[in-house]
Write a structure and sequence with these properties.
The chain is flat. It contains eleven helices and 18 strands. Helices cover 32% and strands 27% of the residues. The strands form four sheets. A seven-stranded mixed sheet has the order 3-1-2-4-5-6-7. A six-stranded antiparallel sheet has the order 13-14-15-16-18-17. The chain has helices at 47-59, 107-120, 127-139, 142-150, 191-201, 215-223, 229-241, 244-262, 345-357, 359-365, 391-399, and strands at 2-8, 17-24, 32-36, 75-82, 87-94, 97-100, 103-105, 152-158, 161-167, 169-173, 176-182, 185-190, 267-273, 279-286, 291-295, 307-312, 321-325, 328-331. The chain has three domains: 2-139, no CATH class; 145-242, no CATH class; 250-399, no CATH class. With 401 residues, it is an alpha+beta fold.
């Protein structure tokens, strides 16, 4: 059985597709083309990997959503070849244990590792590179990698209100991490347990024994005994200081600052405080064909929390550039969606800035941009530009309209 996979790019607005193939050597079937659409899994944290995972599990008969009376065989063995390199993976089950190339882990971890490797094969034909990547994702599950890089999420309910926060996580051994659940209180947790913990607190899967924990029950589960009254008060105060949204947004805003410092000639950030003390952020990006304005002062959705505009010296006949800005006009807001609903405003600022610095490539990938490109937007042009020395003045005038 051979399936040629066509994987849609990371946004509904893009026309780019990535290609690879998989062959299940012990399954007889005609060769078929399959389209993988990540947009169907937009509610997840990694829609592309989620889409591939769902397809592979369905193809191999491992998906829980099977017909009534169906059960996964107690034993099976599949030889899977991936991509042009024909990278070979041995996937088998014996009893309740699953194996990929001899490594045993839970079905979910192995399927995520396989899905990531399949996606990786869209970009490399090196079998050794795919082999290394597969093993890395089995030994260090994506849930644990996320916790190490972004802190481990946690939530509980107080008087019916959901309180969200994040814990710092460090690796302390090959198969063990430590999680800081109170000020200076680091608790050891096995990698496999942290993976299950993250399945609930990051992905929302209601399985395993780590779900629905209050702060005190989490303390007991990690340390063996309930905290004393003073320890509980200290823990709750610590959790309040580590509320999720403030941590995520602060990290993203810091990234915006670092990005503007790294590309100081191409990215400028202006913050404008209104009379009601609310603040709007404007990020100006110098691309190869034009200058762009990204701001958070317009209508927002989960997948589009910032608005993007293209600057033009003239007001064009099709009325695409109607709003006065500086010594020219900005376009109507351009629709550029995120694939996932979980990106913060700061992350969306940065993602668009990086894309628009390379706008000659981005306009080929994002269909909604193309209609705004005028004859004055050509690669390397210097005339149809904003004066970066007057941006604060432009913003103040713009805000007065």
């Amino acid at each position: 059985m051979i399936r040629d996979l066509i994987i849609q790019g990371a946004s509904d607005d893009t026309s780019r597709f990535y290609r690879t193939s998989i062959e299940i050597c012990n399954m007889n079937d005609v060769r078929r083309e399959v389209r993988i659409n990540p947009a169907m899994f937009r509610s997840g944290h990694e829609p592309t990997i989620d889409a591939i995972d769902n397809f592979i599990q369905t193809l191999l008969g491992l998906n829980r959503r099977r017909r009534r009376g169906y059960s996964i065989p107690k034993e099976f063995q599949h030889i899977i070849k991936i991509g042009e390199s024909g990278f070979v993976i041995m996937f088998h089950k014996k009893g309740i244990r699953y194996f990929l190339n001899g490594l045993s882990s839970s079905k979910d971890i192995l399927m995520r590792a396989l899905s990531r490797t399949i996606y990786k094969s869209c970009f490399t034909n090196e079998g050794a590179e795919l082999d290394k990547y597969l093993y890395k994702n089995i030994q260090m599950p994506e849930n644990v990698s996320y916790a190490l890089e972004n802190r481990a999420p946690f939530h509980w309910y107080r008087e019916g209100k959901k309180i969200e926060c994040r814990f710092r996580v460090s690796m302390i051994d090959d198969d063990e991490c430590a999680m800081e659940i109170s000020d200076g209180i680091w608790c050891p947790i096995k990698v496999k347990d942290l993976n299950i913990y993250m399945e609930y607190y990051w992905k929302g899967n209601k399985r395993g024994s780590w779900k629905h924990l209050s702060p005190t029950r989490l303390w007991k589960k990690l340390l063996g005994d309930y905290p004393t009254d003073s320890q509980e008060k200290l823990m709750l105060a610590f959790l309040e200081q580590n509320r999720t949204q403030s941590i995520v947004e602060a990290r993203a805003r810091e990234l915006m600052k670092e990005l503007s410092e790294l590309h100081s000639e191409k990215i400028k950030i202006i913050k404008h405080t209104k009379e009601d003390n609310t603040q709007n952020t404007y990020m100006f990006v110098r691309g190869q064909i034009g200058d762009w304005v990204i701001t958070d002062d317009r209508y927002k959705t989960e997948i589009q929390m910032v608005s993007t505009y293209l600057f033009n010296k003239g007001e064009d006949k099709d009325s695409l550039f109607r709003t006065k800005f500086g010594d020219g006009y900005i376009s109507n807001a351009i629709c550029i969606d995120n694939m996932t609903r979980h990106s913060s405003i700061g992350d969306q600022f940065c993602a668009r800035a990086l894309a628009l610095m390379n706008d000659t490539i981005t306009i080929q990938l994002v269909n909604t941009i193309k209609r705004y490109i005028t004859q004055g937007h050509t690669e390397g042009q210097e005339d149809n530009r904003l004066d970066f020395t007057k941006l604060e003045e432009y913003v103040k005038e713009f805000e007065k309209r």
